[in-house]
Amino acid sequence: MKSVGKFIEQLFDKANQLNAILSAQWREHGNRRTIFILFFFGALGIFLFQSIVRPPAEFPLNELVTIEDGATLEATSSYLEGMKVVRSATAFRIIVTLMGHEKDVHAGDYLFKQPQTIFAVARRVGIGSYGLEPTRIRIPEGATTKEMSTMFDVELLRFDAEKFTELAAAEEGFLFPDTYFFLPNATEELVIRTMRHNFDTQISTIADKITEFGKPLSDVVIMASLLEREARNSKDRRMIAGVLWNRLDKRMLLQVDAAFLYTLGKGTFELSIGDLESDSPYNTYRYPGLPPTPIGSPSMDSLLAAVTPVKHDYLYYLADRKGVTYYSKTYAEHLVKKRKYIY
User: 156 and 73, same structural domain?
Assistant: First the structure.
């Protein structure tokens, strides 16, 4: 009996040893399988990220990406792939569908300030997150439409400077200088409408004074544009307005140097004899009356000065290099001051 028991005990020992060996082998192969599975899915994940999820190298930063009205998901996917926003149109369609936005493609202009994955793009298109933020643009007093076109062209992505200059030519002087906030996709037409509306709103505050003064609005704006360039403060603007209206009443040439800034880009101390004889309708040394159009966009201060001139008998004025303005009633007196303060 003892020998049988001993035999059974030895048999169980052998079984346990075999079980231990088999368990060790299973664990060893199991680790290998786990490592293989992890490696496989890791490699697959890297492949999918590199080929589908990751933003394309040519991702369009700070450019307008426009999804047209009525565009289908298929058309939108192909367009975004063509624009290098996503790497795969097919993957984009699948992701948008899985997100439940297959019927929610939002048309419009999208702006990306940094590269985004296909998932982020799908979400933005699905909820209409355009990424457009207002841009602050300051238009200074006296700016011409040509100068404005350059300022807007730098900031607005859909803006055409040449087209703006052409469309705004008829609005010279009537586009109010101010601080504006436009979305990056603002067009030339929108900019002009907004600035003209601002002008109309501002000018309405002094409409009674313009009516009382008795001059056409166009003449007032032209005069104000000259004053904007000719003087630095309200007092001098009102004094110079008195001089210029006096000269017009007496049918004298205005002889305003500021008009040459508009045509030649030259100031008072840069003008030559040849410049004063140039054949331009803006040459107030040669042609009587006001220039044909404003020479820039005047401020409210200049507009107000144009219709509230100081009443006096002065017909001449000049400013020294420090900006101090001197007034004269006669040409002889003007020449004396010119020799004293200019030469």
Answer: no
